[in-house]
Amino acid sequence: MGQQQLNVCVVGAGYVGLTTGVCLAYLGHQVTCIDKDREKIDMLLAGRAPIYEPGLEDLLRLANARLKFTTSPEACRHADVIILAVGTPPTPNGNADLSFMEAAAAEVAAQLTGERFQVIVNKSTVPVGTAQRVNLIITTAIASRGGSANFAVASNPEFLREGVAIHDTLYPDRIVIGSASNEAINMLRVMYAPILEQTFAAPKVCPRPERFDLPALVTTDVTSAEMIKYAANAFLAMKISFINEIGGLCEKVGADVTEVARGIGLDKRIGPRFLQAGLGWGGSCFGKDTAALIRTAQEYGYDMPIVSATVSVNRRQRLRAIDKLQETLKVVRGRTIGLLGLAFKPDTDDLRDAPALDIIRVLLEMGARVKVYDPVALENFKIQYPNLAVEPCKNASELSQDCDAVIIVTEWEEFRHLPLAELAEKMTGAKVLIDGRNIIDRQDAEKAGLRYVGFGR
Ligand SMILES: NC(=O)c1ccc[n+]([C@@H]2O[C@H](COP(=O)([O-])OP(=O)(O)OC[C@H]3O[C@@H](n4cnc5c(N)ncnc54)[C@H](O)[C@@H]3O)[C@@H](O)[C@H]2O)c1
Asked: What pLDDT, on a 0 to 100 scale, did the predictor assign at position 2?
C-alpha cells in the first residue's frame, strides 16, 4: 500500500473501539484490540462481532491477518499509538463517569517503557481537561516507578454513527486531532493517512461514496478538540429538538412539519439532515453528552439555556406518544399497545437511552398490556430489561394481533413497508397507528382501515 504501517493498540472493543481497530487493520496497520470483557474477546477470537454493526464481521475477516484480540494490556508496550475507547457513561448528576478512562490510563501507564515515543489517544467522549488528567495519571505512574516518560496525549474525538460506523470511519467528513505535541499529531497523521488521502481499496461491504471529497484534518489544541465533540453533539440534538418544537406548533395550526422541514432544509445554511420530527433523539451519546456539557458549564457558573431546552424538549417529545394514545383511545388502562422498534435508531441493537424504554415504562404504569417487536434489538432487550413485563413478538404481524394501537418507535427499513391491511385486520377497537417517525403515508394507512396519527402533521 506504500504507506507506513503502525503498531496500534485499542483499549475498549465496543462500538467505537472495535470499529476503529478493525478499520485501521483493514487499512494496513497492525492492531491489537484489548477489552477486559473476556466474553467479547472470546467471540472476537472466534471471528464473530459481539455487537450488531453492518459489515463489521466481513471486515473482521478481511483484516484478520493484522488483528489481535486480548484481555491483557501488555501489547501496549510495543505500540506506536494507544487508543483509549472505553465507555464514559453518565453519572446520576450528569457528569461523565471517567473511572473507566482513568483505570485504562493506569493500565496503559504500567506498560510504557520509555524506549520509544508513544501516543496515547483519547477517542472516548470526555469533558474538557481529560487529556490533561490522563497525562497526569501516566506521568505520575511512570515517575513513581522511576521510569522515563516518552509519550504524548492527544484528543481525537469520534463522530461515527452506530449502524453506519464503518462508513463513517472510512469516509468521515473530518478528523479532529488535538495535541500540544507536533510529534503526536504527525504520528496520527500517518495513522490516518489512508483515510485522509483515500488511498485504500474500498471494501465491497462499504464502497466509497460517489463524489466523496477528501476528509478535512483539523489539528488543534486538546481543549478545543474535547469541546468540538460536545458542541457537535449538542448542535445535532438541538436541530432535532428544534424541528420537534416546530412540529408541536404545526399540529396546533394545521401545518405539516415534514413540509416545513423540506422547505427550510433546502436552505444551504440549514441543510436537510436532522430535521425529522418524531419521538426525538436517544442513544448512548446525545443524552449523556448534553448532560455532561451542562455540568461542565455549571462548574464555571455559566448558563446554557439552549442546550438545557434541547434536553427538555426531547423529554417532552417522547411522552407525546402517550398524549396521542390518550387523545385517540381516551382510556389507556387495559388496552393492548404494540411497539414497533426498541433500538434507539435503526441498524443497531443499542438500547441505551432508547425512547422505547420510557414509553414502555409509562404504559406499564398506566396499566396497559404492551407487546414489542424489533428486528435486531429484541435479544438485548430481554437480557437487559428482564423486569419490564412486555410480550416480545416475532414480527409486526404477530405484534398487531389484538392491539388497540401500534406505535412506530424506530424507523427500521422494514417498518416503512408494513402490511397495513393485515395489521388493520388483526388490530382491535380504534386501530390507531401512531407513526412516531413519520414514515408511513397517511392515505395508505387510512385506506387500510387504520386511524393514522403522525407527529407534527
Ligand atoms: N457508540 C457511539 O455511537 C459513539 C460515537 C462516538 C463517540 N462515542 C464515545 O466513545 C466511547 C466508547 O463508546 P462505546 O459506545 O464504544 O462504548 P462500549 O460500552 O460499547 O465499549 C466500551 C468498551 O470498553 C471496555 N472497557 C472498559 N474499561 C476497560 C479497560 N480498562 N480495559 C479494556 N477495556 C475496557 C468495555 O468492556 C467495553 O467493551 C464513549 O465515550 C462514547 O461516548 C460513542
From this structure: 62
